[in-house]
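just leaving the lab so this will be short. what follows is a protein written twice so to speak, once as letters and once as structure tokens for the fold. can you read through it and tell me how you think this chain folds. thanks a lot i owe you, the record is right below.

___
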Amino acid sequence: MNHSTTSIDPPEGFVDMFDNEPFESLIGPILYRDADGKRVGGFRVEPKHANTWNIVHGGMLTAFADSALTGIDFYGRDGTEEGVVTVTLNCEFVGPAHVGEWIECHGDTVPRGKSMVFMQGRLTVGERVIMTCSTVLKRVPRSA
């Protein structure tokens, strides 16, 4: 099947906040917008993210959810130098997304504990939910 090239053309306010992340650069760009006291992640589905039916690959959705939820967790912290690593990521695929569509990751921290962070997320195309997910992140000090 012939894949056409798409333009990234993000919605207003989305920027590359983590341009030093090699994996996100490889699969993305993954962009973020901070508004109304929340951070939202997003990416435009390109042919490199899709299968032969121009539907985004489930592996891309899980990689995006993993990256975006950690970026969302980073929002609003007290400035401490720490990172997080994924302990678990559970995903439920609800519907497809196609080449050219803009996908957003919305996440909520359930509790942010002393050593672990628990989050729930959903990936959407407009108002349509395409995946739900939950993750447990381990808080770790950033190494020099």
Q: What stands out?
A: The two ends are 46 Å apart (CA to CA). The mean pLDDT is 88.
